[in-house]
Amino acid sequence: MIKCTRCSQVHAISKSGTVRGKQRYYCKDCNMYFTLPEEPAAEIRQHKKHMTTIVDIAKALNISKSTVSRALHEHSDINPQTKAAVLEMAQQLDYQPNLLAKSLVKSKSNTIGIIVPEFLTYFFPTIIMGAQQVAAQAGYNVIICQSQESYKTEVANANILLANRVDGVLISMTRETKKFDHIKAFEKHGIPVVFFNRVCDEMNTSKVLVNDYEGALKAVEHLIKNGYRNIAHIAGPPSLLLTRNRLGGYRDALKKYNLPFKEDLVVHCNLSKKDAVQCAEQLLNMKNRPDAVFCVNDPVAIQLMLEAKKRKIKIPSELGIVGFSNEPSGEVIEPALTTVQQPVADIGRSAADILLTAIKQGEDYVPEMKSLKTTLIVRESSKR
Amino acid sequence: MIKCTRCSQVHAISKSGTVRGKQRYYCKDCNMYFTLPEEPAAEIRQHKKHMTTIVDIAKALNISKSTVSRALHEHSDINPQTKAAVLEMAQQLDYQPNLLAKSLVKSKSNTIGIIVPEFLTYFFPTIIMGAQQVAAQAGYNVIICQSQESYKTEVANANILLANRVDGVLISMTRETKKFDHIKAFEKHGIPVVFFNRVCDEMNTSKVLVNDYEGALKAVEHLIKNGYRNIAHIAGPPSLLLTRNRLGGYRDALKKYNLPFKEDLVVHCNLSKKDAVQCAEQLLNMKNRPDAVFCVNDPVAIQLMLEAKKRKIKIPSELGIVGFSNEPSGEVIEPALTTVQQPVADIGRSAADILLTAIKQGEDYVPEMKSLKTTLIVRESSKR
DNA sequence: CTGAAAGCGCTAACAA
DNA sequence: TTGTTAGCGCTTTCAG
């Protein structure tokens, strides 16, 4: 029963060709050609959105959904014929398992969360990449959160991960994190946590870091061997373990060569660019200006170098500089930056490896601490 | 009633000290010491892991779970007293909503997926960061996938996102992607897709890119105005739209100033470091060596510069270089690299904005194309 | 204003 | 080997 779209009558309608594949009609009363409105399409649309479920497959094959479920996995108790039929029908109907449902029933999301302070230097993305590779290989997704170096955001991130029922968490803390309840919450619910890079002393969880102490020791030793004697250190924020370790390496290198440790040659930097410039200025303005600086990381070292260049201080002859972490910029700057290389992607891979083991082993897992080796890369900025 | 773990008798058991904090027993019959198996611990474990649900809250308050659900949201039909009580109890029991369950019932995961070719230059992480900020603000999580420039991986990524029922997808394709069924699959299920940077011509979806043509035009024009006349172009892979657009800008700039377009001054680079070096060599080895090169991006430009330095070619006097994308390294290299800046974070933000609108509007959404402006940053590498 | 009940898509005993 | 059933935690009609 076709109604005219204008007069709603049915008596004066006749077919009149097709337009864009659709039947066209003609109403003699209104003298109007029309095609049917799109309402049916709405259903098609819904249909369009519908993703096939195991029930769809079951119905199509006239079997139960459990059988379908079994066929879709490597379950032994399944007739190979049935299995083949299911697999084919799944293909035909373009079946995509609903991982949300699966996660719900299994209480396992196959997702791990990563919280990093930021995203812009090459450091954290590389770690994430490493972690992601390992995770993907094991069938895990990764949800990434940035705390933006804000404690509050970090707490929010943790809640999001919790609400998403991640199976495990990789985290590098903000420089201002001093309370850890939000992280302990994971443990409380049996969700393993692995710290990397910026770890938490007071928690008994797995940790992955590089041998900051040794790296710093080697770096400063290198400077000493190159004849520098008045060596300063731009350190990181005191709250971070890596700061203390690198500082320790610096101090012990001096001690090893019987050089005095001078308080005023150590300045702490919060790692922001602005603060890095300030620290650089502070050191370069000293009456007894240091003849070399070991920097907590490359971005800081680069700021220092730029600042020194501005003042026409010759590098490396008047000022030796060593950084930490081997960022790409350090390679192209002139003079090229001597730096302590960390196996960045390895940090991510190791952390993810440990986390996956922790997830697998559940309660039986014993936290471990992994310390990765650093390598001194000697370039121009420290040779004299 | 303690049973021996071997003979299951109870009559011959006596306590016998403790081991690792647990009571130890002795069975005279078996002459065996034992501690109780771990079963009770299993319960404790479950208890530990158990996350409180709305049912827990309902039971504690002796109301129905529907009421709890209503109280937890801004539902009008709810007694403020009840609501307060629920909220307090939720707090007390440390309730964390299970987003998996919610997603399942709402058929909405509040998650968007991002597929990027790689993760290492500062470019994609920055975009992701921008997108993530926008998404987070709207309550969306982000699942990130790397295709590693591999078509096969990209397809796998797409399936993962589909299986995770993401509400929308942001994608920048691999340089080898030529079929798009895996992306069309999203559309088929009503999941909006927004391309960015490396977009797909043949799909009618939203796209965010920068004005590559104009950026390239300005770059080459700048070189011409600085007196360079034999200007080459290291282009990207022909499959990418951005390659064609930047090439178009290059060509039209030449035309505008009546300079000849010479085929052999255009070399295509697949964007890998190795290939970049090769392209650089090819150009620098020409008998009629170009006096300037416009490069498809900064990493390529930097490889070219390093290669030129090796040969003691003076930059910018003997060779002008302009890059594209303003990577950090370009700022510190000497001479500093002239480049076309793209509003990278904006790309991510815009793409996410568009995607969220598309998600919100559903069927009514009309795909749009956004082209962001580029800025020429003039530094030392192109001034003569 | 509140409760009961159905159902999102899936897995996993338990029967048959 | 397969089907039946219950339930993961939540939202959402539909009745009170």
From TrEMBL, chains A, B:
SMART domains reported in the protein's UniProt record = HTH_LACI
List UniProt keywords, sorted A-Z: DNA-binding, Transcription, Transcription regulation
What InterPro entries has UniProt attached to this entry?
Answer: HTH_LacI, Lambda_DNA-bd_dom_sf, Peripla_BP/Lac1_sug-bd_dom, Peripla_BP_I
Q: SUPFAM superfamilies, alphabetically?
A: lambda repressor-like DNA-binding domains, Periplasmic binding protein-like I
Give a yes or no for keyword Transcription regulation in this entry.
yes
* Record GO terms (molecular function): DNA-binding transcription factor activity; transcription cis-regulatory region binding
Annotated ranges, domain HTH lacI-type: 52-106
Q: What protein name does the entry list? A: Transcriptional regulator, LacI family
From which lineage does this chain's organism come?
Bacteria, Pseudomonadati, Bacteroidota, Chitinophagia, Chitinophagales
